[in-house]
Amino acid sequence: MLSLRHLLELFCHVDDFCQAFLPALQARQIQPGKRRRKRCLCESEVMTILIAFHQSHYRDFKAFYLGYVCPHWQQEFPGLVSYSRFIEFVPATLVLLFAYLKSLLAPCSGISFIDSTALAVCHNARISQHKVFADSAQRGKTSVGWFFGFKLHLLINERGELLNLTLTPGNTDDRKPVLDLLSGVPGGAFGKCVGDKGYLSQSLFEALLAQGVTLITKPKKGMKARLLLLVDKLLLQQRSLIETVIDQLKNQCQIEHTRHRATTGFLANLASALIAYCHQPEKPSLPLKDELLLAIA
Questions:
Q1: Distance between CA atoms of 270 and 97, rounded to whole angstroms?
Q2: Which helix (H) or strand (E) holds 153?
Q3: Ramachandran area for residue 79 (φ above 0: left; ψ -120 to 50: alpha; else beta)
Q4: What is the pLDDT of residue 295?
Q5: What's the burial of 90, exposed, middle or buried (CB within 10 Å: 0-12/13-18/19+)?
Q6: pTM
Q7: Taking CA 17 as the corner, what is the angle to CA 67 and CA 274, rounded to the nearest 5 degrees?
Q8: Nearest-5° angle of CA 190, CA 191, CA 192?
């Protein structure tokens, strides 16, 4: 469970961002927002509680809020409200959560790993009855079977830090968002990008090469073998790094569950889980030396 010292550090990070971002956001609004009663919890406090949930051992946010936040954090959050009232505060923080997540993305170091993971929003047996994401989610297929939901596409560096991410319907080809992912990396992407066989494409390889990025993938069964540099072979052997990151996001940060009742709740859960991972002090990483990074870049 998050200690009070780490809770204070998290709140300070979030509040500093909100203090700088909110005035800029309000200045860009076409028209002022609707007048509303001043809330007992500010945006920074709501965001802190949402992120702290993904750093706890709780699997259900309601149990976390009622069973831990209300009994133990009353002094830290004097304006705590009922659970149902707190849920009403969440949609107002959605833009702030994703803007804050964007500010935590790391720059490219010359090595990147790309992969996607399924985010199912309901059990396959209940697809025909599902209504919350009926107009946005799609059926997709992974190596473990079919699902109904979305795909989260991730780009990380060798230190396990997030470089960029995007969300697509479940039936989207993994290769489709690659160019946007790499072009959206803070400071630009360069060097080598390692992916699985699903990213094999000559046109994609050439398009990335024109941007200064070399796409490295294993050939599919039956394809003619091609020569690879030794460093490329070594990087391909370490592709499991991004699978480890995805495993932590799903099993520790809980980016996936099938209890969502609204799109805003799904997005807030996803953003706060990714933020919690970014604040994680120790991430899966590769022990690469600076000399090797310079040679690859």
A1: 10
A2: strand 145-157
A3: alpha
A4: 53
A5: buried
A6: 0.92
A7: 55
A8: 120
